[in-house]
Amino acid sequence: MSRHWSNPDCLIPSRHVFGVDQTLKSSYLLFSITVIFISGCGQSDTPAESADSSQSAHPQSAQPHSGPPHSGPPQSSAATISIDALRTHIKELSSDRYGGRAPGSEGEILTLEYLQKSFRKAGLKPGNGNSYTQQVPLTSVEVTNKPVLRFSGSDNHDLQLSYPDQQVVWSRQQITSAAIKDSQMVFVGYGINAPERGWNDYEGVDVEGKTVVMLVNDPGYATQDEKLFNGNAMTYYGRWDYKFDEAARQGASAAIIIHDTKPAAYPWTTVSSSWTGPQFDMVRQDKGSNLALVEGWITYDSALTLFNKAGLDLATLYETARKPGFKPVDINLTASVSLNNEINTVNSNNVAALVPGSEYPEEIFIFMAHWDHIGTDPEIEGDGIYNGALDNATGTAGLLEIARVVGSLKPSRSILFLALTAEEQGLLGSAFYAANPLYPLRNTVGGLNMDGLNNFGPTHDITVIGLGMSELDDYLEHQARLENRVLKPDAEAEKGYFYRSDHFELAKLGVPMLYPNSGYDHTEKGTAYGLQMSEEFTANHYHRPSDQYDDSWDLSGAVQDLEIYLQTGLEVANSRSWPQWHDGTEFKAIRDRQRQAAE
Ligand SMILES: [Zn+2]
Q1: Which of 308, 343, 378 corresponds to the end of one domain?
Q2: CATH code, domain carrying 239
Q3: CA of 353 to the centre of ligand 1 (A)
Q4: Do both 405 and 268 map to the same domain?
Q5: Residue 90 C-alpha to ligand 1 middle, in angstroms?
Q6: Distance from the CA of 525 to the center of ligand 1, in angstroms?
Q7: Nearest 5°: phi and psi at 517?
Q8: How many angstroms does the Cα of residue 520 sit away from the middle of ligand 1?
Q9: 229-283: per-residue pLDDT in tens?
Q10: Same domain, 191 and 324
Q11: Could you tell me if residue 136 is inside a domain?
Q12: Using one digit for the tens of pLDDT, what is the confidence trace for 422-455?
């Protein structure tokens, strides 16, 4: 069994943000392929808002909360999160029987049965017509030749870059062969079109059918100028997935990013190992025909040679690309490459259950968590089962417990519970839901994603990845304050964690989303202890078979967090307000248009 690393964003962070799944994603699917994916890391913006409780923000909650904040140990009554029920769910879902919950495996069947049974018992309605499941067809595309990327100019000496030492190219189009021939080339700076920031790297150029070449990250990071983009903190525009998508929107046939270790935050070896081997994606009805035919990365050294050949100075282009007013530059060369692809499919499922709103049933708040994990690797010593107890049996268990409580209530708006598949393969279950929502996104008020819960006891704080991005923070902050707890921003905003878990797939289509994580400041043992616990998990258990349930886990902190998540969702569901993205966020314009269309 070969092992590939896929779609990296960052290496394992020095400080683990629980369950972000920001690092190495792996999967052992039906065919004996081992793939390791990295999907996302998140970002936080301006944490100022929630830190200041005096301005409270407290949203216009039209109705009282459905239950008082609990105090004392959690009871097994319907109205509060039960620590025993939580433990039972985690133990069950992470047991060996489930085989690491890989999409398309026997473990998926068991997981779906368990989730449906639990939702039904809690009195929830099927979320998809009369079904609790939403089929998610997945596909993988693997380049089977070793494509040579060729650049030609007026001289007779083509520059040829070898695969995968100097370049990696692939196609997200789900077709057995893809080629570009003598495609004109344009340098488009950072490849960013951000109308709300008055920045367009494609200004005045038609790249239809051409090959665009661009830099990684964004001008804010490059300059460390807090007034440019988000300064050091990565914006969505800094991410490779944005850059490839934007190139496609501009009509480019091929999109190439110049690798640069520091702004990318990972070395070339991560790129070359990640984007080779099977690349999973949703099955696309149009086979991805709206995407660029070829996408890829080239090494920094190859880029130097390339621009040299074109009579251009890469260092100068780096300088101009980061300044406002940058104009795209023709590269006096053409690009050619030819790919052969092998395509496979796997069928998986999201699980959806609904508590219909008593007054505004068409308006939806979503609680979500991914049910999947990495599966079983028979080549690994021991049982090879990636039990995924923390990641994400805990989040899934939390989803079931919140559902059980909400199932006994009558929120004004509907609350949808989504257990998503294929997060570990690159947020595919959530991307599928966002593309095929069971309830219109324009009527989806907001949501909250859980990916890994606290297993080391109560904390004073809650980490919020992407704190400061939307007014949903205000609801969470309000509920946290009632429990004498505080919200803290993610400490590694430059790594862009906000863009790397399931909530993001809805966020990027406009829906305001919360992504809270475990805090660190343990109520008795302090922050050092919380950090030690999280670092210990990252070093020894993250995406390893040893992420197993242990009876010594202290779930009282998870219960406290879940109570706050529960009350936050209820507060939104019982209000008449529509929380918005803050000005300057990437998703505000799309949401504003969406809501205007709805009203
Ligand atoms: Zn996860």
Answers
A1: 343
A2: 3.50.30.30
A3: 20
A4: no
A5: 14
A6: 26
A7: -125, 170
A8: 18
A9: 989 888 899 999 999 999 999 999 999 999 998 888 778 987 887 788 778 898 9
A10: yes
A11: no
A12: 998 889 999 999 999 999 999 999 999 999 999 9
